[in-house]
Amino acid sequence: MTIFGPVIDTRPLFPRERRALLGLLGSLDPQDWERPTVCPGWNVHDVVGHVLNDYLRRLSGGRDGYGGAVFASDETLPAYLARVNEEFVRAFRQCSPQVMIELLAHLGPELDALWSVRDLDAPADLDVSWAATDLTSPAWLDIAREYTEFWVHQQQIRDAVSRPGAGDPDLLGPVIDTFLRALPHTLRAETRPEGTVMRFDVTGSAGGVWFVARQAGRWHMAPGDTVDEPVAHVTMDQDVLWRLASRGITVEEARRRSGTHGDLGLTSAATTLLAVVR
Question: Which part of the chain is the Mycothiol-dependent maleylpyruvate isomerase metal-binding domain (predicted)?
């Protein structure tokens, strides 16, 4: 049983998610680009610029081997990311929406091609720190993390301009599944006897059931047919889950909108689930 659970291959989903994003952006009025989003200080234009930053950064590093911006002295990873993301967003404020749409349409297939030849079980280009800080991430988890990034930012834009979409279970389901791979790291401070099991239910058409088990001194994702009776159980709606994991809502709000049963320490920890770097 691997700590990260079974492989999630999100690569076929990137073109679908991007088509939905480009269709959305092409339909926006000029005033829509100025609407504020849940990302503090960023409007729709800024979030699109941030997505472009992700495209360019991954192509520059993964395809071209370019290191990019360097850490400042004593700078933590969250501080570094906040700084370089803000620098890029500010620079792209001088670019028109049409230019950014054209860049997304051009660069997206380049990124698809880069990932299409990756060995999913090979070490990741960038480790997923919210899944583990002491283990090398597999490539599939790194790629899936990027898929969640793009999907979440599209949903944030849709929220800002009141345009539904991209909630198809085929698109949202892998986001939920990927985010829940943060559970072993989320529970890391909760020491329990070997074999202790926790269950996490996500309701909605893109939801399902996930289990985490204590094995060899740490928590692992576990298949449901191999575990004992859970000592803790969380039930959360799919919309609450993705917003909690990306901190679109607070932990307190997520708890108010969820159900818990059993071991209080485990349910309290699990409902702090975070799948972004902060």
Answer: 16-157
